Amino acid sequence: FPLPTAGKEVAAAMIASFPTPLRLRSAFRCPRPLFPRDNGGRRRRGWTWRSSMCMAAAPFVKDGALRVNGREALTGVPQNVVVSPPLMDGAAAFLGAVADREDSRHVFKLGVLRDYRLLCLFRFKIWWMIPRTGTAGSDVPFETQMLLLEARQDEAVDGGVRKAAADPAFYILFLPVLDGDYRSSLQGNSSDELEFCIESGDPATTGSRFLEAVFVSHGSNPFDLMKESMKMLEKHKGTFSVREHKMKPGVLDYFGWCTWDAFYFDVNPQGIEDGLKSLSKGGTPPKFLLIDDGWQDTSNEFQKEGEPAAEGSQYVFYSISSSS
To answer: What single-letter DSSP state applies at residue 87?
Structure first.
């Protein structure tokens, strides 16, 4: 209902006093007067999108479903799956799980994933990442390092048929992360269940409780969502820095040479020496050298008998760098 002038001033003062994250992290449309934009010294009214992480809608599990921003992201969530207290005013949380035994490697089911447009980034080869799209958990490959779901704020039901609502899309991000001495990755199975694999790589390093294995957040813009999520993880984990907080290594200011395209698997000392002389003679002496002898044989100790090997899993990329 209309407010008297004094009432409007009080309301404006209350809005202005809200904590910054509450006012700026909403993914929904907000009246322009709350977020004015300068245009030649004049303030314009209208509508704007806040393309960043949402507020006060922390992921949580209820009635066997993982709900994110009002949507069921996963159904049939097992009872051993746990959700950490929300981070950043409820914009994100961690998923984890508890096992009934200690081990250096566990595979936990997170729940059924269906009827979402999804994008994965996964290790197509041990040394190479590529994307994959799909609509269900079975489309999520082994060694997935990032999973992005496209969702709607709500859905309408007409005669039992689910229809997408007119609300704008928002995005749900799953990032497997380091949890103490363990690394995690996502994967799906033939029943459309999303799983996470967590492993220490050391048979002597075992555990059964993993509370921060998968980071979950959501927002209206996938690019901002990824960037802000990494900043949150940087602050919470304290184990890495995002790109804008890193110093560029000095080697980037110099021209160097990698032997791979010249020799592939047949790298040899004489060839390296001849290559360096040739580059120097041509007026482009390299300031550093990357000796790339290609591969090391590996074996997958978890591969079941008769199961085909994942492409590229028999090799590991190996390189040595040195100054020249």
So the answer is: B
- Report pLDDT for 17: 39
| CB-based contacts of 66, cutoff 8 Å, min separation 6 | 59, 60, 72, 73, 74, 75, 77, 81, 83, 95, 110, 111, 216
pLDDT of residue 317 exceeding 50, the answer is no
Tokens 């978890």 locate to 302
- Residue 166's pLDDT is what? 59
Q: What is the model's pTM?
A: 0.69
Burial of 16 (0-12, 13-18, 19+ CB in 10 A): exposed
CB 134 within 8 Å of CB 120:
yes
What distance lies between CA 44 and its chain's CA centroid? 36
Cα separation of 294 and 267, whole Å? 9
pLDDT, one tens digit per residue, over 242-292 is: 999 999 888 889 999 999 889 988 889 999 999 999 999 999 999 999 998
Rounded to whole angstroms, how far apart are CA atoms 172 and 286? 45
**Joined tokens for residue 133:** 């799209």
| Separation in Å, CA 248 to CA 231, 242, 321 | 18, 12, 17
324 pLDDT higher than 50? no
- Helix residue ranges, H only, the chain: 5-16, 20-24, 222-237, 260-263, 269-281
